[in-house]
Design goal:
Layout lengths: L1 H15 L17 E4 L12 E2 L10 E3 L4 E6 L27 E7 L7 E11 L2 E6 L14 E7 L3 E3 L8 E2 L3 E6 L4 H16 L15 H4 L19 E3 L10 E5 L5 E9 L16 E10 L10 E3 L3 H4 L5 E6 L18 H5 L7 H20 L3 H11 E7 L7 E7 L6
Parallel strand pairs: 1-4, 3-5
Antiparallel strand pairs: 2-5, 4-15, 5-14, 6-13, 6-15, 7-8, 8-9, 9-10, 11-12, 11-14, 13-16, 17-19, 18-19
Helix pairs in contact: 6-7
Amino acid sequence: MKGLLSLMATAGVALAGAMPVALADTTDVKWQNKVVIEKKGNHCVDDANCFNRYHPAIPAVSRAKPGDMITFHTRDALDSDLNLTSVADDLAAIDLNLVHPMTGPVHIEGAERGDVLAITLVDIEPDQYGYTVIVPGFGFLRDIYTKPHLVNWKLTRNHAVSEQMPGVKVPYEAFMGSVGVLPGEPETKAWLAREAALGAAKGIALPPQPVGALPSAVCGPNGSHKDACLRTIPPRENGGNMDVQQMQVGTTLLLPCFIDGCGLFVGDVHYAQGDGEVSGTAIETGAVVTVRTEIRKGQGAQITSPEVEGGSQIKDIEPSKFYQTIGLPIKKAGEIPEQLKYLESEKIKDLENLSEDLTLAARDALIKMIAYIQREHGLSAEQAYILASVAVDLRVGQVVDVPNYVVTAVLNLDVFDK
């Protein structure tokens, strides 16, 4: 080795007098092909690369090959004007018809209906600001928390802090709250029909709403498919608003392709979230998201809805210490939980114990956890609910010990900066 270095040095001296030699730095060595979909304008309505409804007629804004590094510049879930000085009263200006602004769609060359698109999350660079809100009429405990509340977060690649949450540091564990592909014509018709049936049964269903819908030429009040564009709030077989925090950097999401090119989109990035996102929001933020795709030919026959491949990501986001409450499907006599009212069952009203009910067990665990946070950590009820949304995981304990299934609420005690 010494001899080689000596020879190189000698050669360098000999050549120096005749011609300068440019030595490449590693920075100059490139192999990635990059496709970037940028934001344009202040809001989705100003941006040809943004949409907030699903329909196969929505045109692709860019094309990419499998293996390309695709970078999406995304907007926050509410497409808001919120900032570090915002207060709860500012939430009255939020137009829920505008959620969720998605960046894309991107046509993946070579992908066809019936294939599976494997989407590996490479990186998320968050904005410096994020927020978590309580919006009246929305959230898991919407019957209890009926007033607006807002927490503004300062974000880094390490943790989030807020003046409205003193003594709390929420670790950076970002993921794509919404990521998916466009549905095909058969899926659009089928999903609209099943959701209409649910709405007719007095369940919660969100029918097409052309007001605020983008792209307006397809989904708006005068759009070509204004009565057939799906809302982005519920997740479906095409992915979308799944809000699954385990889909961290390094994991691979598998989605069936329903149209040629798939129509890949990304948005609604969550800086951090607890399993359940119970207040209705996580730490919502805009971000720059990079993914890489692979086509798995013909696998759509086996993989018909989202599935995920991963490694140590689940372990990496586990807390080093925790507090856990145990929820059972019990309630007060005379009470009908909000999520069960559409069933219109007189049996439910008078019973104190429901059979095999995970929703009621989750509610019980969450209410107990909020009481613990208030009691032991001195937060208000609203602060505790917000903290539960970003740092408490609702987990199924068991689904066999009839009639009382168990859901637990697990609080990451690492968030307390003491």
